[in-house]
Amino acid sequence: MEKDNEKEASTEEERKIRKAFVDKNWTEIKSADSWVIFKVMSEFVEGFEKLSKIGPCVSIFGSARTQPDHPYYKIAEDIAFKLVQHGYGVITGGGPGIMEAGNKGAYKAGGKSVGLNIFLPHEQKGNIYIDPEKLISFDYFFVRKVMFVKYSQGYIVMPGGFGTMDELTEAITLIQTQKIGRFPIVLVDKKFWAGMLAWFKEVLVSHEMIDVKDLELISLVDTSEEAVKVIEEFYSKYLLEPNF
Q: Which of 15, 89, 217, 232 is the Cys-Cys partner for 112 at CB 3.0 to 4.6 Å?
């Protein structure tokens, strides 16, 4: 069974690669691209309609592979719970692992629990702790990332893989280039992130790929209390409070 699945995956991968080299006529191109344009538009419209009035929220990023008995899961759940107690809603990617933990914490605290789910080959489904009217499913990662950025007033980044890195660097880039405000970015677990931050300093800064001041965009913490404190202290400087 496993070999059959591997063979099927290999065949599908080959099909995608070969498809890029197929010569299409103009009618085929217009037809395919038009469908994609309307699908992308529909995802944007649904996202804007459902999220436009959710109030100040904080996005929690992290690995979908984190199990409920893992310390990271429990920290993410506690962060979400405390954020709701301070008046914020919580946005996650809507799936399992850290995403589920974030939604669970928000749900248990009685706050707004938003899930931006993405359709994946393994059929990721929204977790049970998302408010039903705030579960949105996307085909396109780039549309989903727009929603994360547009409706978040802060980012909590738990340990994770490539997807988490993608979301983290998206937020940093948009702040660095002043496309969005300087919202707080909080990395949780100093030991986990230490190697990446050291590489930023030793390689990116030394090669002048980034300015050393860009690293000031990131806060590094170990506990849920510290993570929420970063968010609270940031907005207290502007005399802002959540409006829920």
A: 89
Q: Which two tokens stand for residue 227?
A: 């993570």
Rounded CA-CA distance 82/90 in Å is 10
Residues 76 and 157 in one domain: yes
In the chain, the number of structural domains is: 2
More confidently predicted of 23 and 233 = 233
Q: Are 117 and 191 in a shared domain? A: yes
- Give, rounded to a whole angstrom, the gap between the first and last alpha carbons of the chain: 51
Count CB neighbours of 146 within 10 A. 18
Residues 19 and 113 in one domain: no
- pTM of the complete model: 0.85
Please tell me the chain's helix, strand, coil percentages from 3-state DSSP, rounded to the nearest 5.
Answer: 55, 10, 35
In a domain, 44, yes or no: no
Tell which residue, 224, 205, 221, has the closest CA to residue 213.
Answer: 205
Residue type, 12: E
Domain that holds residue 153: 56-236
**pLDDT tens for residues 169-200?**
999 999 999 998 899 999 999 999 999 999 99
Q: Clarify whether residues 136 and 15 are in a common domain.
A: no
Residue ranges of E strands in 149-215: 155-157, 185-188
Question: Are 45 and 143 in contact, with CB atoms under 8 Å apart?
Answer: no
Rg (the chain; Cα; Å): 20
121-179 pLDDT, tens digit per residue, is 665 678 999 999 999 999 999 999 999 988 999 999 999 999 999 999 999 999 999 99
